[in-house]
Specification:
Strand content: under 5%
Largest sheet: none
Keywords: Coiled coil
Order of helices and strands: HHH
Helix content: 40-55%
Shape: rod-shaped
Length: about 140
């Protein structure tokens, strides 16, 4: 269902890129038939549908990969849990609370580090002011 040759503009091919918005005569529809304009819109719609289908297939493929990664991670975690359970000492020791790992660092020392960082990386007060001379 291609438009007849007289329905298409001269040397423009099959109405590529909205030809009725020509730079020399913008908005002039007199040289285009309704059939040619409808054909152009239908063609653009088909192109959009094809792009949408491609994006949907890509999305489905990504979702499938995510599910595979999730299931792989779950299987790996279960495998690690079984290894840990097999290598743990007798069950009587499992009831005991685990000792704390490392004591928390002193708060005063962290605060000093943050203050030093703030002083080194501070922004000048006039940094955000708009310079009127630059205009």
């Amino acid at each position: 269902m291609t438009p007849t040759k007289d329905a298409m503009p001269e040397s423009r091919g099959p109405l590529a890129k909205a030809p009725w918005v020509a730079p020399n005569r913008p908005g002039d529809l007199s040289r285009f038939t309704t059939k040619a304009i409808i054909h152009y819109i239908a063609k653009e719609l088909e192109d959009l549908k094809k792009r949408c289908e491609v994006l949907e297939r890509r999305c489905e493929a990504l979702e499938k990969r995510c599910r595979l990664l999730d299931s792989g991670v779950e299987a790996h975690v279960k495998e690690l849990d079984t290894k840990i359970a097999a290598s743990s000492p007798a069950k009587s020791h499992a009831a005991e609370p685990a000792p704390e790992s490392e004591p928390e660092p002193e708060l005063g020392r962290e605060d000093e580090t943050l203050e030093e960082y703030d002083e080194e990386e501070s922004v000048p007060d006039d940094y955000y002011e708009v310079k009127s001379e630059a205009k």
